[in-house]
Automatic annotation (TrEMBL):
HAMAP family given in the database record: UbiD_FDC
Cofactor: Mn(2+); prenylated FMN
Domain 3-octaprenyl-4-hydroxybenzoate carboxy-lyase-like Rift-related: 124-322
Catalysed reaction, written as an equation: (E)-ferulate + H(+) = 2-methoxy-4-vinylphenol + CO2; (E)-cinnamate + H(+) = styrene + CO2; (E)-4-coumarate + H(+) = 4-vinylphenol + CO2
Name used for this protein in its record: Ferulic acid decarboxylase 1
Domain 3-octaprenyl-4-hydroxybenzoate carboxy-lyase-like C-terminal residues, every copy: 328-461
Cofactor: binding details: Binds 1 prenylated FMN per subunit.
Alphabetized UniProt keyword annotations: Cytoplasm, Decarboxylase, Lyase, Manganese, Metal-binding
InterPro entries: FDC-like, UbiD, UbiD-like_C, UbiD-like_N, UbiD_Rift_dom
Originating organism: Aspergillus keveii
Source domain of life: Eukaryota
Amino acid sequence: MAPSEKTPSAAGDLRQFLNELQDEGDLLVIKEEVDPAMELAAITRRVYETEEKAPLFENIKGRQGDGLFRVLGAPVGLSRVPDQRLGRIAKSLGLPSTASGQDIIKKINGAKSLKYLAPVEVDIGPVKEFKLFGDDIDLEALPTPLLHQHDGGKFLETFGMHIVQTPDGSWTNWSITRNMVHDKRHLVGPIIPKQDIGQIYQMWKDKGEDMPWALCFGVPPAAIMVGGMPIPKGVDEAGFIGALIGKPVEVVKCETNGIRVPANAEIVFEGTVSLTETGPEGPMMEYHGHVWPGQAKQCPLFKVNAITYRADPILPICITGRATEESHTVWALMIAAEVLTICQSAGLPVKMVWCPFESHAIWYVIQVDRAKLVSLKTNMADFCTKLGHIVFGSKPGWYMGKVFVVGEDVDPTSLRDLIWAESTRCEPGTSEFLFDEYGNIPLIPYVGHGVKPERNHKKVVKCCMLPSEFVDEELAWKVGSFRGSYPTDVQALVERKWENYGFGPVRD
Ligand SMILES: Cc1cc2nc3c(=O)[nH]c(=O)nc-3n(C[C@H](O)[C@H](O)[C@H](O)COP(=O)(O)O)c2cc1C
């Protein structure tokens, strides 16, 4: 059936996203009762690790009827549907499920040159179907899953979007950051000063008022992708999301403050973030697959004054840990797209940037445009030094540990290609350029738990290109592979007769 004018897009509407996943065989509705005390999380973890269908848990022990809430696991996990491993990422951005990594980065960055479409306010939306206020709210009674056995509490917020606004209303930030249940009326979570939510929190501190806040679950899939993207300070995520979807996001006003939230969100918590009250938070299993059990840290309390939600609401969650979960498919991938823009805006000859999921948001592969590179008449040391300063000195640079520079014969989205290029072309010491003038996110295990440096922890640019690639237009070598070692007519013959020889279909 052709989508009608009225059919919302999957990128703009979670329920449509789920309908399409179901049609494609990439969603599993689980009606059997599951225990939120780890069974639910363990299922979801296994789903990430086997690239299985996204589980939608409808029958969670302790859930009140069809109220708060159903849970969607692995909303942007990888897929085992043939030819659509990146399908959930692609669909979240309005692309066909068969899109490649290159298509995905192109789509994100293509929207940057479109007109940003500010959200439009509507009077009513599905998220206003049910409302709870004040003492009717009991966060401890919700069937919040315990995500990992060594977590310091139950994390309700792992894949929802916080919305905060500067005191003068000139800048609204939509972003993802975790929150744990603290008591009946409070969540607790870190606010990192370097992040935009931290900058805005500081403005409220300077004013001496608690920060009005909303936390929205089940927002348009494109919105949650952008919520995990380090876009430049002062830019409203909402306008960019409108450009990405091709239509402004519809928003409704909160019940208890002036924040506007997506009208088709599943659940919205609204309230204030305290300037003075804190509570113990964490630890929580991190995006790099390690947790150091033990001490909690004091973090600000988020007071919930109202909850609004739609019928049979859905709470999307991310079970952090070893790849591949949403820290990798959303955060790292959106960082990669942003780094491509930063390189290109600085005039660097860069074609593509990617984060191999297996690197847990720490490695970034930067592919050069060789014709442009050669025309610059530069060399490896000058180029990599310049690139390192530009990339590591940028807003996303703080999260990035290691950069790999590759040529055009290496597909940056292929770990096999990257390992081949690094092992064969990157000479220890000679092709590696170290930087210690830029900080690192302390969550990286070798930063927070490694050898203490004399100055700062280092970052590295590893050049996986040979010196001749900076000078010669033509590559001087030929590649030993099916594609590289045989004429095209022989390749075509073998492909045509492949199954006649008795082989099965080729898998990548
Ligand atoms: C699934 C997921 C979970 C995340 N959790 C956190 C978190 O707990 N704390 C945090 O500081 N950033 C977290 N992030 C990263 C931020 O959302 C990201 O850095 C974002 O760009 C910050 O927003 P800003 O551009 O407004 O500073 C997470 C991202 C994703 C995709």
